[in-house]
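Researcher: Next sequence.
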Amino acid sequence: MWNFFRFSPQYGCYMEKIHHNNIVSPMKNSKILRADLKSILPMTDNYEWNELKVRDVWNEYNWFTLNIGIQGKEASDIFDVLISTPRAQGRARRENNIKQCFIVERFDRRTIENSVTQFVERITGMSWMDIVDQLREKINWEYEGMG
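Model: Next structure:
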């Protein structure tokens, strides 16, 4: 008898399929966690959107601080991300000595908030660390390098 596990969108949890008897049942205590963007603020003197000076919405970049947690929970961790338009990404990477940045088509508050929210809320995992590992593919976690 073999056990297989797969995620069932219909039931919102992992399902166990026992190969021999074709029994399908939810895994005990399995709950998929979903990342939730609590806030996004530009790294300006006072972390205020109105302090963000944008000269060209098609050719701009800046660092942002994100508070991300789990949907339905109040707690969050801090993440930093360099957000750039396609035209500015080469300059952003060079001037900040980094390999990747988060790309948005237009550098305005609405586009940035929508793009980052969509990215974050697509991330799911069985634990907070599963979520963090996926987030770290594009953004920096506050505990990066500690350990």
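Model: The CA atoms of residues 44 and 52 lie 7 Å apart. The beta strands are 3-8, 13-18, 23-26, 33-42, 61-70, 76-84, 102-103, 124-125, 140-141.
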